[in-house]
């Protein structure tokens, strides 16, 4: 066993809380992770972890080692990575978490552009609409939309998303055009259940915020499906701008109630605060900020 491998297993085990979590992060088997840790303890002549059936806990020696070890490993990666990257560009694996629809439509293409000049870089994009545990799942960078709740994470704002009220021309021809936000209560509305809150649509009209209690025949936890239903004339929808901009440009959808503005949601890149950001992660954050900050 290489000493550095054993040290990486120790850090990953502590941060994920298990050998299986460490193994998943490092790309090895749980059995091998446990073996590396045992060999590290034998080499150092001291116990580093308490093992129980439920959890791992640091011994006093383990706590002492962990005060400096994560930063030391990060600095080692930084130094060796800089030598490789000077010749071939960025390398290693970047694990990125993002919401499903936004990840598919916006983040995926941007990651492809980012990776193109770096043949040794591996992108591991994990799409989920839940807030993943960055430490437990070994995520380097997560894309979050809306209000941030976890103050333990370091965040950088990348851009904004605006929610737009839209409908198909065929629907408006049949049911009429709402003149003000309150008129939406008399229309078929398509509800995206990913939106936080009680289901009411928050719209600001003439400087006043209104919460419109809408109703309709379709609910879905997908902005893309809600857009598709709107295009097919099933009702009025409130959708993120990145989902409907092409449909608006092509006339498949119409911006309804342009005088009533929907919520503006911040897009953030978040990462764990106790670790030094790898060069590849810093470069990706800069790339995303440049692209999303200038998005229409």
TrEMBL record:
<dbReference type="InterPro" id="IPR036388">
    <property type="entry name" value="WH-like_DNA-bd_sf"/>
</dbReference>
<keyword id="KW-0805">Transcription regulation</keyword>
<feature type="domain" description="HTH lysR-type">
    <location>
        <begin position="1"/>
        <end position="59"/>
    </location>
</feature>
<keyword id="KW-0238">DNA-binding</keyword>
<dbReference type="Pfam" id="PF03466">
    <property type="entry name" value="LysR_substrate"/>
</dbReference>
<dbReference type="InterPro" id="IPR005119">
    <property type="entry name" value="LysR_subst-bd"/>
</dbReference>
<dbReference type="InterPro" id="IPR000847">
    <property type="entry name" value="LysR_HTH_N"/>
</dbReference>
<dbReference type="InterPro" id="IPR058163">
    <property type="entry name" value="LysR-type_TF_proteobact-type"/>
</dbReference>
<dbReference type="InterPro" id="IPR036390">
    <property type="entry name" value="WH_DNA-bd_sf"/>
</dbReference>
<dbReference type="Pfam" id="PF00126">
    <property type="entry name" value="HTH_1"/>
</dbReference>
<keyword id="KW-0804">Transcription</keyword>
<comment type="similarity">
    <text>Belongs to the LysR transcriptional regulatory family.</text>
</comment>
<protein>
    <submittedName>
        <fullName>LysR family transcriptional regulator</fullName>
    </submittedName>
</protein>
């Amino acid at each position: 066993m290489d000493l550095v491998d054993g040290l990486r297993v120790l850090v990953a085990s502590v941060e994920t809380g298990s050998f299986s979590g460490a193994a998943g992060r490092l790309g090895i088997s749980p059995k091998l992770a446990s073996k590396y840790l045992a060999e590290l303890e034998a080499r150092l002549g001291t116990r580093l972890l308490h093992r129980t059936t439920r959890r791992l806990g640091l011994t006093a020696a383990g706590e002492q080692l962990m005060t400096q070890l994560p930063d030391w490993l990060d600095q080692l990666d930084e130094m060796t990575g800089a030598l490789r990257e000077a010749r071939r560009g960025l390398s290693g694996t970047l694990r990125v978490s993002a919401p499903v629809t936004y990840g598919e439509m916006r983040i995926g293409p941007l990651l492809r552009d980012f990776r193109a000049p770096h043949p040794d870089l591996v992108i591991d994009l994990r799409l989920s609409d839940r807030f993943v545990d960055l430490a437990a799942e070994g995520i380097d960078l997560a894309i979050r939309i809306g209000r941030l709740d976890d103050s333990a994470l370091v965040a950088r704002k990348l851009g904004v998303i605006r929610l737009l009220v839209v409908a198909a021309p065929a629907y408006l021809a049949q049911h009429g055009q709402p003149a003000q936000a309150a008129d939406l209560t008399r229309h078929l509305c398509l509800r995206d259940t990913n939106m936080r809150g009680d289901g009411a649509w928050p719209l600001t009209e003439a400087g006043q915020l209104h919460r419109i209690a809408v109703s309709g025949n379709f609910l879905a936890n997908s902005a893309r499906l809600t857009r598709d239903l709107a295009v097919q004339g099933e009702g009025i929808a409130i959708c993120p701008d990145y989902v409907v901009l092409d449909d608006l440009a092509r006339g498949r959808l119409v911006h309804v109630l342009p005088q009533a503005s929907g919520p503006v949601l911040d897009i953030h890149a978040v990462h764990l605060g106790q670790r030094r950001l790898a060069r590849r992660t810093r470069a990706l954050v800069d790339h995303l900020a440049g692209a999303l900050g200038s998005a229409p």
